[in-house]
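Let us walk through a complete example step by step. Step one is to write down the protein sequence. Step two is to encode the small molecule, zinc ion, as a SMILES string so that its atoms and bonds are unambiguous. Step three, shown after the inputs, is the structure prediction itself.
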Amino acid sequence: MKRIITLLALVCLYTTLAFSQKKYELVIEKTDGTEITVNSEDIVRTYFRVNGSNKTDYELAVEKKDGTEVAVHTALIVRTYYREREALLQCSDGNHPHMIDLGLPSGTKWACCNVGASKPENYGNFYAWGETQPKSVYDEITYQYVTGTDTDGDGLYDRDIQYQDIGSDIAGTSYDTATANWGAPWRMPTNDQCEELCSNCTSEWTTQNGVNGRRFTGPNGGTIFFPAPGMPYGGEIIDVGEYGFFWSSTRNEYSSESALNRFFDSTRVVWNNSGRYQGNTVRPVR
Ligand SMILES: [Zn+2]
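Step three: the predicted structure of the complex.
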């Protein structure tokens, strides 16, 4: 009897450990080759329901704890399954982007590379805030979400300037550069998530495969590298290898024309805010 109890206790302990350390996600594989993933702990329920009025079409609905849902017509689904979410402490192979666990309090995982990059030391693309495609010139004239008149031709509007309100936080919306390019649940980091990264990690200026940048190391030993791409200015990229900016999804609450980002160079990482039309890199989280 005593042995059985000990054995049961061991099984319970093992099960608790196994399930506390492994995390799962629901994968909906679609006919167009893309997939939708939802973290299992975010799911309230999944069910099929009639789609449309003829009652012969069905969709799979995934109801989430945040009140949102994902719905996909069954004709577009190849298969659905659960898989273990692999959060790594660092890049392990060439299958980027990896989801890196830095041991942050919120559980946020950061990608190993920027949107548009094929590996961590690639700069990736620059994006104006809320735009999902890169371009050759980043100024107010080319920015999708502002209208005005440039009377002196300097690339900045000086009359009738009107910034379109696309929200105070664009994470997970159609304006989210990360979600648009990589698919959900990847999204741009909020200002709070950037703050969490900077206050919980140490960071050092270093060179990775010949590229200057800053390596962040989390309390659990996980690491990610931010290459220093410089910045787009007047149709060219200046100060390559000297510093970098990456966007948060959070707009400046006191100015509809700017959004919050982080600046880093060889000496520091600091909170910053830039005009929404400027081109910054984007490092996704999930
Ligand atoms: Zn990687």
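Step four is interpretation. The longest strand covers residues 43-50.
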